[in-house]
UniProtKB/TrEMBL annotation:
<keyword id="KW-0238">DNA-binding</keyword>
<dbReference type="GO" id="GO:0006351">
    <property type="term" value="P:DNA-templated transcription"/>
</dbReference>
<keyword id="KW-0539">Nucleus</keyword>
<dbReference type="Pfam" id="PF00172">
    <property type="entry name" value="Zn_clus"/>
</dbReference>
<feature type="region of interest" description="Disordered">
    <location>
        <begin position="1"/>
        <end position="33"/>
    </location>
</feature>
<dbReference type="GO" id="GO:0003677">
    <property type="term" value="F:DNA binding"/>
</dbReference>
<keyword id="KW-0862">Zinc</keyword>
<feature type="region of interest" description="Disordered">
    <location>
        <begin position="638"/>
        <end position="661"/>
    </location>
</feature>
<keyword id="KW-0479">Metal-binding</keyword>
<dbReference type="GO" id="GO:0000981">
    <property type="term" value="F:DNA-binding transcription factor activity, RNA polymerase II-specific"/>
</dbReference>
<feature type="region of interest" description="Disordered">
    <location>
        <begin position="86"/>
        <end position="126"/>
    </location>
</feature>
<feature type="compositionally biased region" description="Polar residues">
    <location>
        <begin position="1"/>
        <end position="28"/>
    </location>
</feature>
<feature type="domain" description="Zn(2)-C6 fungal-type">
    <location>
        <begin position="36"/>
        <end position="66"/>
    </location>
</feature>
<keyword id="KW-0804">Transcription</keyword>
<keyword id="KW-0805">Transcription regulation</keyword>
<dbReference type="GO" id="GO:0008270">
    <property type="term" value="F:zinc ion binding"/>
</dbReference>
<dbReference type="GO" id="GO:0005634">
    <property type="term" value="C:nucleus"/>
</dbReference>
Length: 753
């Protein structure tokens, strides 16, 4: 049995014992007044919170009912429904308004799937003639087939009452479904504490729940942890091995976990070998299950970061084909066919579809490919009923701060973060298709139309982003929010750059004021990215970042490089005087290169990005300390001493005291740039011009230009080192590639050492 399988068997508890402790565990987990049952609320007495019936209701023989507040997704759907009804009313009153409304609705790219389903109700009902819902094949596998397939006769598609899909509003979303899902999630979380999963498996699994799951949402935790004990349908040894393999790079920073991995599991490589062997066996046997899809997504993500782009692209493609085969791309609530889906089944299928949709856009972005998945009127809506982890406390698992310092309690907001990331990916899908299609040349009219629509959609998304998820680079908090919130904000700025960057090289296609606005948007977002990334590194360390943050830093560096290329003019080489004039851009690009050089230790694919930038800088004649000099680019694999230096503090009293103040937000903070420069024993004095380190002060390096109009735009550009001459030259420079590219075999081998 593979090691991960052994872990599962060792970690499984007796189901009877687990059930015995379930009530007690649930009581401990729900002893909050907010979770009191309705009879106890009415009597204003303390409720024990026992599940499924509290002790007071049991003694009084009352019906014990727990009622919950509406979910964020349900509230959003109500708002969308109200707006839809208001639009329909306006349409009925004015024919001209109807025509105007039709035009506007077709131009809004950022609609959620639920709103899209409302807008396309009529068209979706028209699909009934060709789509008959989901069914089980002869082997008992859930799937679907259209009218042209081997598996249906023309007579099966004659119109009948049974052809009409179930209305998305036929069942009230809060008609007991959310209560059942949330109560089950709470119970499973309580049972997790009773399980006895041995190390290092427990450490690696917890790592996944903390650093990966909140943003990507590949796995539904309550079902996985339950079926891990019972060997149910939402667990497999293959999936467990994939989770362990993907989490190994985070686990290496814990000494005891690293020792176990090195001594017993070949540094963790054994998990990846088992996962690949087992998933290939499943595919060869025609096994198509949800755990198989989740395994393929994790393998795709891991291989992508390691630079194995061929494997990453094929794994993701298999996952997307498999959700098609399983009918996950179809709303399981509306097109159930003869399948009796449970509340949990529908929840898992919805989450998995949008996880795949998001990953499709991200991997297409990394590799410069066309996205595969598109949402339609029959797709699952962007709706999550189980938001039990929304207000769950998030803590940076595995991170050890200096004595006396703790990460403050903070709500995870995982559900809202994932849903807003899905909305953002819908917008970016349009940018990929209409501005970065590698298979055909996007026309100028198409690009301009995309710019107009998606710029408005991005602006609205940012304005509507809740304050608890928004990071303003101009007023950064003293300590970084959770990792997934940081990634959400950085990806927004990345998408904003990719929307405006193509317009910089279109000299005649737009007015000069518009091009200045596009440049300002790019510079503002690029500076915001490195400021937020610096905050993340100072709080959690550079090696705990996901690949999406590395990509964001790379895209930010492309803007600073573009400034230098424009400043070089026709000669193509920057003189010493010009380099002095371009110090703001040089310092920011310096920061990006140093960060990327470190990040390629954990994400070898980043090495190709570093090589691209350094090649362009060599062409510009820039060879200064920080831009390649003094950095050992051949070193692969992070060392523990380097990580400790990145992470937080030396043990000396003065430095330790200063770094505590940095984490707590008291006094002057040490920039991560200074840590990478090796300045870990003393602070940089921003007022002392004689100190060479003052050039890299946080106030200067991460100052974000304000967005303005007209003459104000030119003023802000000049304030940040972008002269009119540089601005005029930007249109003649082509930005570096938006994709990472491939990693050489040597880099892959070095990364595995």
């Amino acid at each position: 049995m593979p090691p991960a399988s052994t872990a599962a068997s060792k970690g499984s508890t007796n189901p009877q014992q687990a059930n015995t402790g379930a009530i007690t565990s649930s009581a401990r987990a729900t002893k909050k007044s907010a979770f009191s049952c309705e009879p106890c609320r009415r009597r204003k007495v303390k409720c024990g919170g026992e599940q499924p019936i509290c002790s007071r209701c049991l003694a009084r023989n009352d019906a014990c009912v727990y009622k919950l507040n509406p979910t964020l997704s349900y509230t959003q759907r109500l708002e969308e429904r109200i707006k839809e009804l208001e639009d329909q009313l306006a349409t009925a009153r004015s024919p001209s308004a109807a025509r105007s409304h039709d035009g506007c609705s077709s131009e809004r790219p950022g609609l959620s799937s639920s709103e899209g389903a409302h807008r396309n109700q009529e068209s979706s009902e028209g699909l009934a003639g060709t789509f008959k819902g989901l069914k089980l094949d002869e082997r008992g596998v859930l799937t679907y087939h259209g009218a042209t397939s081997f598996f249906n006769l023309p007579s099966d598609y004659t119109g009948s009452e049974g052809d009409v899909p179930v209305s998305p509003h036929s069942e009230h979303p809060l008609n007991g479904r959310r209560e059942r899902l949330v109560n089950n999630a709470w119970q499973q979380r309580a049972l997790e504490n009773l399980s006895e999963i041995p190390e290092p498996f427990q450490y690696l699994i917890n790592t996944h729940w903390c650093w990966i799951q909140p943003l990507f949402n590949f796995i539904y935790r309550p079902a996985f942890t339950r079926d891990m004990q019972l060997l149910g349908p939402y667990y497999s040894h293959t999936l467990l091995n994939a989770i362990l393999s993907h989490s190994v790079r985070w686990g290496r920073w814990d000494n005891s976990t690293r020792e176990r991995l090195e001594q017993e599991y070949d540094g963790g490589a054994v998990f990846g070998r088992h996962a690949r062997t087992m998933v290939f066996d499943e595919v060869s046997r025609g096994v198509a299950t949800i755990p198989t899809v989740q395994t393929l997504l994790l393998l795709s993500a891991q291989d992508c970061s390691q630079g194995n782009t061929s494997q990453a692209w094929m794994y993701s493609g298999m996952a997307f084909r498999m959700i098609d085969h399983l009918g996950i791309c179809v709303d399981s609530q509306r097109y159930t066919g003869d399948i009796p889906f449970s509340d949990e089944d529908v929840e898992i299928r919805r989450r998995l579809f949008w996880s795949c949709y998001f990953w499709d856009k991200i991997i297409s972005l990394y590799l410069g490919r066309s996205p595969s998945l598109q949402h339609s009127p029959v797709s699952p809506p962007q709706m999550i009923l189980d938001d039990s982890n929304e207000n769950e406390t998030w803590a940076p698992f595995g991170l050890k701060y200096p004595d006396g310092v703790k990460y403050p309690p903070i709500a995870a907001h995982s559900t809202s973060c994932f849903m807003l990331m899905c909305q953002l990916s819908v917008i970016f899908n349009q940018i990929l298709i209409h501005m970065y299609d590698p298979l055909q040349q996007n026309s100028e009219a198409e690009i301009q139309e995309c710019l107009t629509r998606q710029e408005a959609a991005l602006k609205k998304w940012w304005e509507d982003l809740p304050s608890f998820l928004k990071i303003e680079a101009s007023v950064l908090p003293p300590l970084s929010p959770p990792s997934h919130v940081v990634t959400l904000n950085c990806l927004y700025h990345t998408f904003n750059i990719l929307l405006h960057r193509p317009m910089l090289s279109r000299e005649r296609s737009s007015a000069e004021t518009n091009r200045a606005r596009h440049l300002l948007e790019c510079v503002s977002s690029a500076t915001s990215i490195i400021a937020i990334f610096d905050l993340f590194c100072r709080s959690f360390g550079i090696y705990r970042s996901v690949l999406s943050l590395s990509y964001s830093v790379y895209i930010a560096s492309s803007i600073f490089l573009l400034q230098l290329q424009a400043a070089a003019g026709i000669s193509g080489i920057l003189t010493e005087e010009e380099q002095q004039q371009q110090q703001p851009a040089i310092r920011k690009l310096d920061f990006c290169i140093r960060a990327l050089s470190r990040l390629k230790d954990i994400n070898p694919i980043v090495g190709s990005a570093v090589s691209l930038i350094l090649r362009e800088l060599a062409n510009l004649g820039i060879r200064t300390l920080g831009l390649g000099a003094g950095i050992d680019f051949s070193r692969q694999g992070p060392s523990n001493s380097t990580y400790q230096a990145h992470q937080h503090t030396a043990s000396s009293s003065s430095a330790s005291k200063g770094r505590r103040n940095s984490i707590l937000g008291v006094g002057q903070r040490l920039s991560h740039y200074e840590i990478m420069m090796g300045n870990t024993d003393s602070f940089v004095s921003t007022s002392d011009s004689s100190n060479s380190g003052s050039l890299y002060s946080q106030q200067t390096l991460f100052q974000c230009p304000e967005r303005g109009q007209g003459d104000k735009i030119d003023h802000h550009l000049q304030h940040h080192g972008i002269s009119n001459q540089v601005f005029q030259a930007v249109s003649s420079v082509q930005p570096i590639s938006a994709s990472f590219g491939d990693v050489t075999n040597q880099e892959q081998q070095d990364a595995l050492r």
